[in-house]
Amino acid sequence: MDLAHDEERGEAEDVAPKDRREAILLKFVQGHGNVLNSLVSQSPALLEDSFSCLLKHPQCRTVLDFDNKRQYFTTQMRKLRRHVRTLNLVVRRSNVFEDSFMYLRLHTAQELRGRLSVKFDGEEGIDAGGPTREWFQILAREMFKPDYGLFKPSADSSAFQPDPRSSIAVDRHLDYFRFVGRIVGKAVADGHLLDAHFTRSFYKHILGLKVTPSDMQSLDPEYYRNLMELTQMNIEEIGLDLTFSADIDVFGSVRTKELFPGGAEIPVTEENKRDYIRLVTHYRMTNGIRAQLDAFLEGFHELVPAELISIFDENELELLIAGVPEIDLDDLKANTEYVGYSAASQQIRWFWKCLEGLPSEDHARFLMFVTGTSKVPLDGFKNLIGMRGVQRFTIHKAYGSDDALPQSHSCFNQLDLPAYNTEAALCEKLTYAIHECTEGYGFG
């Protein structure tokens, strides 16, 4: 019997219905999931009234579609923002992280629930959505930088979780974790997507879910495989010398941390090896970063109530934070509007041909250029958000020579495209613009 099977059996026991009425409800919900979701989609208010049980019971939540949950979440967050004044933030582009940290720590959670209006010092223009989106994207990059020592990447560099060494690397590190928690919480609350991917266990901590040894796969796949092999081996036969402790690399110096008092003196045996696996993974994902987790969660839950975010599972939370990673150009094209051009215009045909020929990295750059974010809306480009709510991507005809650059108005998801005389000129200028003008709103 493997570790994953043990966990699955344990989780099934943990969430078993407590009484017959609950069992009947669960059976009904699971048997009528499609109908219930259709009704909720047509009348979202049902989740606040007669269908509220779908959110109250953890097992019933799994039947609800992500879109229905997200709609309910958005509605509830909007209620929390009512009658709260706009919070104006001015930051230096060269010092976004520190300026934001110093400013936001002076404000209460209630004040932070209001609309956030960001302006970059020395740059013209009023924030109608674009600079704020860019501000979130800059912070999402900054908080993972090794210079800050707050987060460390997973073994495959695909995700991040708090660095247990942050107390050594950073003064006031817990204040910074609380700040980052507020930033992620504010982004989730306001519907801004972040280029931020965390480990599976970190998402579970945000949701208040039980972290299990299998979640170690997201942090260190090879280490997890080694632990799985340990369950198949006889420790006494292979002579493996382990104790109930963990070796931690602290900037080149190895330190031994006991998994419980006196653990370094207790050998791991065939009888207790599963206890060792449970404790060592719990240390790596929870106990070893407990202070950092608590500080982050304090900041996050100031903006997003724990009982509200808990309607999602860890996979849905990743979508809520980071959005759908792939950019579907066919979807973007199908949801594009034209002013001065039509879909049949020569320049428009050149435009799409050029964009389709660029690598995926440049697709993300292009999206950042015209919308202020490189992330796709959760439900596709038909619901692209701009200054006036849902605003589809629009290409406006601009006038100028072949030397003119395309310009963007990210607050309106708008591209001003000159009527170039050749395909080569259009592609050259478009490529230059998305590479050189991605960040900064003086050009729009």
What are its keywords?
4-stranded mixed beta sheet, 23 helices, alpha/beta, Hect, E3 ligase catalytic domain fold, two-stranded parallel sheet, Hect, E3 ligase catalytic domain, 49% helix, disordered N terminus, 12 strands, 11% strand, 444 residues
User: Architecture of the largest domain in CATH?
Assistant: Alpha-Beta Complex
Q: What is the number of strand segments?
A: 12
Main sheet: strand order: 7-10-12-11
Structural class: alpha/beta
For the biggest sheet, the summary is:
4 strands, mixed
Beta fraction:
5-15%
Rg, Cα atoms, Å: 25 Å
Share in helix: 40-55%
Q: Outline the low-pLDDT stretches.
A: 1-5, 7-15, 438-444
What does this protein structure show overall?
This protein has 444 residues and is an alpha/beta fold. It has helices spanning 3-14, 20-31, 33-42, 53-56, 58-61, 66-81, 96-104, 109-112, 130-142, 166-169, 173-190, 200-207, 216-219, 221-232, 235-238, 273-285, 290-303, 306-309, 314-322, 329-334, 346-357, 360-371, 423-436; strands at 87-91, 116-120, 151-153, 160-162, 245-250, 253-258, 336-339, 385-386, 389-390, 393-398, 407-409, 414-418. It is built from 23 helices and twelve strands. The protein has four domains: 19-81, no CATH class; 87-210 and 290-322, Alpha-Beta Complex (Hect, E3 ligase catalytic domain fold), CATH 3.90.1750; 213-278, Hect, E3 ligase catalytic domain, CATH 3.30.2160.10; 329-436, Hect, E3 ligase catalytic fold. The chain is 49% helix and 11% strand. Helix 12 crosses helix 19 (314-322) and helix 21 (346-357) crosses helix 23. Belongs to the UPL family. TOM1/PTR1 subfamily. It catalyses: S-ubiquitinyl-[E2 ubiquitin-conjugating enzyme]-L-cysteine + [acceptor protein]-L-lysine = [E2 ubiquitin-conjugating enzyme]-L-cysteine + N(6)-ubiquitinyl-[acceptor protein]-L-lysine. It is an enzyme of class 2 (transferase). Residues 108-444 form the HECT domain. Pathway: Protein modification; protein ubiquitination.
